[in-house]
Amino acid sequence: MISSVRGLVLSAVGPAAVIEVGGVGLAVQVTPATALSLRVGTEARLSTTLIVREDSLTLYGFPSADELEVFELLVGVTGVGPKSALGVLAVLSPGQIAQAVSAEDDGAFRKVSGIGPKTAKLIVLSLAGKVFVTTTAAASARPAPTSASANVQAALIGLGWSEKVAAQVVDETLAETLEPEQVGVAALLRLVLTRLGPAQQASERRS
Asked: Which is nearest to 92 in space by CA: 157, 132, 146, 51?
């Protein structure tokens, strides 16, 4: 079992990153926000789990042990594969997942692409008593748009923009969005990058 990897980021595109460990480039499946927060040429550490199938060995990586733990719980739910579990974590933080399970709110999971009503209810039932809302999580848990904002801001900072610019452009983009509560990480990131544009991207990045 490969429980973690630490090494030089060789690439981070889409849902995958390649991290060099001991001269070997390991392909790691990650959420879009995690991929965008990784900077090529810098060192990164991810908590990982290896999913073994008859025709494949796939490594999944997460920036925190909490995300890894929730991922493994989700994969254990009937009807939820690794791809869907990663999709859940791309939309909801571990704290938000714990709150949704505690409140028996299957609607939070139905917002995830590929998760239908039956599977959403099964996730709530299966995770009951296995994930808990801590005081810290309860205090920091936020609705989906705020979580998306935080993830996109982190991604922009990882790509080289300053914290001030990242926060400002995300706030401005959400203010002009008709239904900000429905905007996920991937959609918000596309809107933000479109808003920045090539010229502004060049001028606003940190030197």
From this structure: 146
DSSP three-state, residue 166: helix
Q: Where are the beta strands (DSSP E) in the chain?
A: 4-13, 16-21, 24-29, 43-53, 56-62
Closest CA to 88 of 119, 118, 125: 119
Spans in the chain with pLDDT lower than 50 = 135-146, 199, 201-207
110 to 118, 121, 131, 177: CA distances (angstroms)? 9, 9, 18, 21
Q: What is the Cα Rg of the chain in Å?
A: 17
Residue 31 phi/psi, 5° resolution?
A: -75, 160
How far is Cα 156 from Cα 163, in angstroms, rounded to an integer? 8
pLDDT at 111: 85
Q: How far apart are CA 80 and CA 95, in angstroms?
A: 19
Q: How would DSSP label each residue in 36-91? A: HH--TTSEEEEEEEEEEETTEEEEEEESSHHHHHHHHHHHTSTT--HHHHHHHHHH
85: burial class by Cβ within 10 Å (0-12, 13-18, 19+)?
A: buried
Q: What is the pLDDT of residues 71-101, one digit of tens each?
A: 999 999 999 999 999 999 988 889 899 999 9
Strand 16-21 relative to strand 24-29: parallel, antiparallel, unpaired? antiparallel
Q: What is the pLDDT of residues 15-40, one digit of tens each?
A: 889 999 999 999 999 998 888 888 89
Q: What is the pLDDT of residue 179?
A: 60
